[in-house]
Amino acid sequence: MPIDTTDYRDIFLNDRPMMDARAPVEFTKGSFPGVINLPLMTDDERQRVGTCYKEHGQQAAIVLGHQLVNGAIKAERIQTWADFARANPDGYLYCFRGGLRSQIVQQWLKDEAGIDYPRVGGGYKAMRTFLLETVDQAIAQCNFILLGGMTGTGKTELLTQLSNGLDLEGHANHRGSSFGKRATGQPSNIDFENRLAVDVLKKRARGIEQFVLEDESRMVGSCALPLPLYQGMQRFPMVWLEDSLQGRVERILRDYVIDLCAEFIAVHGEQGFALFSERLLASLNNIHKRLGGERHQRMLALMEAALAQQASSGAVDQHRAWIEGLLSEYYDPMYAFQRESKGDRIEFVGEQAAVLEYLRERVRFGD
Question: Which residues make Cβ contacts (< 8 Å) with residue 326, sequence separation at least 6?
Answer without folding.
Answer: 299
